[in-house]
Every structure is written in C-alpha cells, then in structure tokens.
Amino acid sequence: MIKECSVNRPLIIKKNHLRSSSLSSTLKARLKRIGTCADRVGIRMYLVGGCVRDLLLTDPVLDIDVMGEVDPGTVVSQMQGNITHHPPYGTYTINFTDGSHIDFATARKEVYPKPAALPVVSPGSVMDDIRRRDFTVNSLLISINKKTYGYMYDYAGGYHDLKKKILRVFHRQSFMNDPTRIFRAARFMGRYGMRCEHDTAAYLAQALRSRVISRLSMKRLSNEFFRTLREQNPQKAFDIMVEWDIMRYVDDHLAKVTWKPIDLPVSAIPDRCAWLMRHCAPDQAARILEKLMIKKTIIDTVVSILSAVRMLQKKQSVSDSLLEDFQNASIYNIRLLERMPGVNKNVVRKLRHYHSARKAFLNGADLHALGYVPGRSYGEIFRTLRRKIWEGGITRRVEAIDFIRKKFPLERYS
Length: 414
Hints:
Layout: E1 11-13, H1 25-41, E2 45-48, H2 50-56, E3 64-68, H3 73-76, E4 82-86, E5 91-95, E6 101-106, E7 108-111, E8 120-123, H4 126-131, E9 141-143, E10 152-154, H5 158-164, E11 166-167, H6 174-177, H7 180-192, E12 195-196, H8 198-210, H9 218-229, H10 235-243, H11 269-276, H12 282-291, H13 296-312, H14 320-325, H15 331-339, H16 345-356, H17 364-369, H18 377-390, H19 397-407, H20 410-413
Parallel strand pairs: 3-6, 11-12
Antiparallel strand pairs: 1-10, 2-3, 2-9, 4-5, 5-6, 7-8, 9-10
Helix pairs in contact: 7-9, 7-10, 11-13, 12-13, 15-16, 16-18
C-alpha cells in the first residue's frame, strides 16, 4: 500500500509559481486581492487541484479552485462579483462580469459509505483535503497569502510524479470508492502521456475486474463520456477505454468505438458525437444519446448529420435538391461528411465549394440598399446567386450586383 503522506515534512518550493504566463494579469490581481483579504482575517489559502497541475505544465488554466484551511466565506464576501454559496459542501463561487469565475472550498474530508457512492463530506484539515484527491499530481498546493505568495507545497510527492508523468493514487480503495477516477486516469494517460505506477495499476486492474463501474449512475457515466469527448485530442483516451473495456458501461454499441484524428473544435459537440458514432444508424445514435440525457437539440443535429451520411452514400452527383438540403450545413459538418465512410468524396467536395459561396458577396442589408423589399424573395435571390457563384459564373461583388439586377428586376421584386 502507498505510504501515508507526512504532514510534518512537505516539500516547499519557495518560488513564485504565480508569475506564469498561463495566468492573465486580471486573474493575478484577483489572487493577490484574495491573499490580502485572507491575511486580514488570518486564513491560509491555496490554489489547489487541476489548476495547479496545469499551471506547472504551462497549460491553459481554465478553472480556478481556491481552498481555505477554514470556511473562506469572510474572504469571499470582500470580493467583487456575483457570489453563490453552497452550504451543504461549504463551497462558494464568484462569477465576474468578464464571464470568468473562481471556486472556493473549505478543507474537507470525504468518507465513502460504499463503492461508487457519492462521498459524505465534512470539514477537515489540509491533510484530509489532500488525501481525498484522486491522484498525487492533483494534490499540490500554491499559497496565495502575502508572505508565501506563489510557494508550492507538496505533501505527497505529486511534483515528482508530475515531472515523471506518473499516476499514483493515495490508497488501494481509490478506484473502488470513486470509479469515475478510472475514466480520469484514461484521460490523463491520453492527454499527458502518463502511466500508472505499479500499485496504482494493480488497484485499477482490481477495480476493472470487480465491474464497480456498473454501479455508477447514467448521469455520472454521461459526464465522463462528454468530458472525454471534449478533450483536445480524445483518440488516445478512447483507445485506452476500449482496451479496458469500459465504454460498454456507457452503451454496448460504443464498446469498440474508435476516434480518428479530425479537425473539429472542442466546442463542436454534435459534430464530435456524430464522428464518434459514424458507424451507428441515426436511430441507434439517437437512442444512445437519449440514454446519456443530453439536450434534444444536440441529438437532432447528430441524427441529421448521420442521416446526411446515409443520403450521400447513395448519391453519385450533385443536384439542386441536394444543394437545398445542405444550404444550412456548417463548415464543420461539411468537413465531417467528407471524412465519413462510404460517401462519394467528389460530391462532398462540391458541397464544400458550394458552402464557401454562401456569403455570396452580398447580404440582406445590401439587397435592401439595392431597393429589394425584405421577404421570401431574399431566399430565392441568394439561392440563385450562390448557385451561379458555385458554377464559377461570378467572382466579384460588382458581378453579383449586376447578375441580381438582371435576373431579378426591381419592378417585380420591390
């Protein structure tokens, strides 16, 4: 078993880790303000968790978590912003006008009444808070109090593990207590190229054999699925999950799912879902996503993309009706369709060319300035213009205006 961490002998690196370029000047000013307020009321406060890990790796720091040795409410109340208090957990969130937020929590300990259950939370010490973490790489602290501002505190060897790309849990029941850590391990291995140390690998294998993941609610499984889907490059994480045979707990049809590299932004969740489920029938994908309890608008988009794939698998040429069907497709949809198995690549390339002509050199305001009355005729005008551009008959704005005036005389369309 992994040895208990020593409270008395933490590794303290006396260097200002908060000078990092990963933090904006606005955020640095806010952290100093928090530290000043904490000093005033005599509370020690630290940055904790994933934000410290990302800071040390010089990755973008997206979520800021601050931990106080006691309830940080008196500090939070002195900050400017919209404050939300969550009494059951002793946590606070400050939402700022620029759209960012900082989460605050009291040092706490967690007890799991049974495997895969949500923990019972109670106030605790800094050491309790460290021991409840998933991996040592997420147990590092950075002080934001004035005298020790930016100093890093390492009670569990997390800094060494981070440098060596090692995943290490705190005790043998870690994965049994919280099976979502299995998914997290796969993401960290995929994202950072980490590996489980010997004992951690044994505990993980034991948890996999026990099928403890089957005890997770579908909501928690859904959260892990979409966190993985939002990875910058989820390929390795999904490959690891398939190797561990844990995707079947989400759905049997995803047991052997594969992700291939494709240019889709992290925010394009419907497109990413469709790419991941590219071998599924539209109704099959809808059933899986409904089970995962995601928004109907996302399900509808995924179904429309997969339905388009089925249509394009049968098309050998581009028709006006096909162009109409795809006039509202996004550029990501078109790129996605081009990569889908079994579609006619030449047809999709023509659709992409058509898509690039969507702006048509003009917009509704331009038509109004030319004397055309807003209405349904605008749709007809733009469809005709886009088709002409797509065919190569128009290459400049002045040509587009001349074409419209001749094709759609004002006496009929004003």
